[in-house]
Amino acid sequence: MVLNKIKNLIVGSENPQSHKYKTILDNLSLDSTNKDDLVHIHLIKKAFDVGYAAHKGQLRKSGEEYFNHCIEVGLELSKWNMDRDVVIAGLLHDTLEDTQITRQDLAEHFSQEISELVEGVSKLSDIKFNSRQQKQAENFMKMFLSVAKDIRVIIIKFADRLHNLRTISHLPLIKQRRIAKESRDIFVPLAHRLGMNNIKVEMEDVVLKTIEPKVYNDLKKKVSSSKKKRETYIKKFIDPLNADLKNSNLEANVFGRAKNYSSIYHKMNSRDKEFDEIFDLFAIRILVDEIDQCYAALGVVHQLYKPLQDRFKDYIATPKQNGYQSIHTTVIGASGEMVEVQIRTKSMDMTAEVGIAAHWTYKENGAIVSEKEKDINRHLKWLRELIENLQSEEKNPKEFFKLLKIDLFQDEIFVFTPNGDLVQLKAKSTPIDFAFEVHTQVGMHCISAKVNSRIVPLNTELNSGDKVEITTSKKQNPSHAWLKFVKTAKAKTHIKRWINKNENDKSITLGKEVLEKTLRRLKQLEVLEEIKRNPTLMGFNNPNLIFSEVAKGHITARELISKYAPNMDEESQPKDETLTEKFIQKARGQTKGVKVGGISNTLISFAKCCNPIPGDEIVGYITRGKGVTVHRNECSNIPVSKNEDRFIDVNWNIQSDSSFMVRLHITASDRKHLLKDITEKVSLMNIYIQSIDMKANEGLATCILIIQARDTRQLDRLFRKLKQLSNIISISRR
User: Fold this and answer.
1) Are 693 and 703 in contact (CB under 8 A)?
2) 3.20.20.70, 3.80.30.20, 1.20.910.10, 3.30.460.10: CATH of 221-356
3) Domain spanning 660-733 has what CATH number?
4) What is the pLDDT of residues 261-301, one digit of tens each?
5) Which pTM value belongs to this model?
6) Residues designated as active site
7) How far is Cα 472 from Cα 727, in angstroms, rounded to an integer?
């Protein structure tokens, strides 16, 4: 075994970094006089020596020995009070990737658990990928799958990423920016979701320093120059607070903490303010022993300083999904400046700093305290749902990262079910997102929603504190239109999955039908049976895939007959293979801005009942002899109940100067100059008015306006302009 050779190498060797090994033992509070601790000590020493020998001769870009990085990872994990196996896995986390050591070696000489932890952190180094982005997507998916089995994998990965960021300056600038952006997009929000605030903050500052070095250095200089003033103000704020807490018999640790550079930078951007206009550059933190003392301390703060009512948040009563608990209140200090005060217990503070890592404390025989086990399982539930959402997109790197970023959100809202259960969602989520979060089937069959006992549209944005009630119907299915406004990855994934399956089923039915009719006319129905028996002849493992390709026009009946009946007479060969191909062959000429089955010059027409325009979700309906009629997805005139197999994929393919007819229905309270004001708004947007018809009856005016619009974005702008007019009641498309 490789490790046997390594054992010979490390005999009598002295690691120059052995003092850090002793620091690791101190952090883990291991006592050499304790028999149980002695077992842990020997195993950590073994990992230390094996890692040192395995990486000997390897150097980092900085020129230092590579194993120094592994030591720093193990050291960081020990600071977070992780268990022995995690620390060992941290020391050995690069051995599978960069040395000759194998999984079997680790399992044999350490444990199967340690071997799996190291494997979970390791990258996919032996697989060839089509692109860097695909490789990155595959690596992240592999990591998340490992995390779902054992959440300690991500904690090791964070320690690894943190030290890599601390030493990022030794890398080429291009690689620095790539790693920084990856950390910003994936690891920072992931750290937030897992409650690992210290890690999140440090990563954010390195990212800012790497991507915006001038901004970072400028902020650092300004914060440094105001340090003395800030310290003086903190002391003036804290001294009377400490005195009042003591008079109230509250034992508390009170201190001020400056906010990190990236937080200040985001505040300046979001509030559009200069540095000198940002007053809350620091926060006061109060740590106590018990929860009831938190509220007692809050009373003392509010008696001493005037609170801002709209800047109060109780995350103890309603914890964040990442486990964060604290009371936040903003008060006016003695000098008139706003100061944020955070009040929490010491255990809450530990959780706030290192998040999920604070919950991973083993008792005897590996048993976990029940409350902590609950916290870990809660995180695992979220991660498993994330993985389920991502797996369907893992073949598409762009979609993978899009969904990943959606799910790793930082802005959150809290809403309630009718039974009073709390549901956490992404900010600006809708009732559809809520429905899918409650249960997938509730989301799939959602037909209407009530928010705070009032019926609302399904695209309504929810706010914290809303009570949401969903009505379902077995006849209801997801709509293309939902994809325009849903916010959560879970909702997007399930909607897309249903739509793709539904459209695929329709393609299969249509392809099979047209192929069967063609083969029956040619008296070659046995070809259909051969296709079912042997689809691999066309390079497919399922005959349904062939039927779907026929419907899309990618495979013709002629090609299939030549494969499955090659001896058929030339004269008997089909001239018009499929309905789709008939339409493609007919009326080739100027496109109307729509592709049918990926082909742009097909005979098409726009349905007059709904007048679709670019930006609308559309569907094609095959009309015999007339080509493909394009409808808006939500059009009520689509013949869904009959001839469902006539639907076909259509997509917009517009020119920059294209325009489309739109019929608007405007209702308003009648007044003088109403028509003039409407036409002026339309004309100012350079939109052509094709016709206008206005009637007034008993003080109510109805206007039918037919215009030429480029797309839905232009139409949305027009709607906003028209709604600015007084007396306008409603505007809709007809």
Assistant:
1) yes
2) 3.30.460.10
3) 3.30.70.260
4) 777 777 666 656 666 555 566 788 999 999 999 999 999 99
5) 0.53
6) 97-98
7) 36
